[in-house]
Amino acid sequence: MTQFEITPQLRDIIQVSSYIEKEKLLAQKDVSHEKLIEFYQSCHPTPTLLALIRKSKLYIPTYETYVQPKTKEFLKNMAKLRLKAKEQEYANLLNKSPEFTTLYETSNQEYISPAKQHKELKNQMATIVNIAISVASVSYAIWYWTKSSWGLKESFRVLITIFFGLLVLIAEVVVYMGYLNKIEEARIKEKRKKEVKKVIRTIDIASSDTIDIIDTIDSIDTIDSIDTIEQSEIVEHT
């Protein structure tokens, strides 16, 4: 519904008119377009309705910010997010983090030193060179063998050489990727192992010296599956 502000000019027009509900209109700061049309049709204070509207101003109410009530689920999720942020901040204090952070999750990423990066780059370059040498050697051998043994045309020799070169390249890449996957699996398995020191017996000699016999156990269970580790202590008094 459109509201119009009752300006001093419009107020004077309403006051001198014979409208029945003029006191009610004068007590308000704004009037609806329906009431304004009703007032015009009842009194005709101006030649046209547009002229009457021009005596007023469009009323724009003040904007009120709507505060949506917070649900229990929203408050619960906010508490979880705050707790997660605090845990991440604490983990960053314990573990060395990179200088710049991103929006992606970096808590499970391992820090790689510049020396380790240089070593990995050197190994990758050596692998690329070895694969290139293998492909070139096999291609040259096929090229020479097809001429000396079969005496084929150069077009057939080129196709056969390219085929075997691609075959060797694919085989080398597959073997290398399998090697990298095995290394990664072994690294993950080694990280999941947890060294547990378990006290199996405590010997008290003459109530002065105490000897603890400690057995070191490498737990092969994953960290996720370990709930509690029971420690047993047998004290023998002599």
UniProtKB/TrEMBL annotation:
One GO term (biological process): vacuolar proton-transporting V-type ATPase complex assembly
Q: Which UniProt keywords apply?
A: Endoplasmic reticulum, Membrane, Transmembrane, Transmembrane helix
Taken from the UniProt entry, a GO cellular component term is:
endoplasmic reticulum membrane
- UniProt-listed InterPro entries: ATPase_Vma12
Q: Which domain of life is it from?
A: Eukaryota
Principal localization reads endoplasmic reticulum
Q: Where in the cell is it found?
A: Endoplasmic reticulum membrane
Protein name per Swiss-Prot or TrEMBL? VPH2
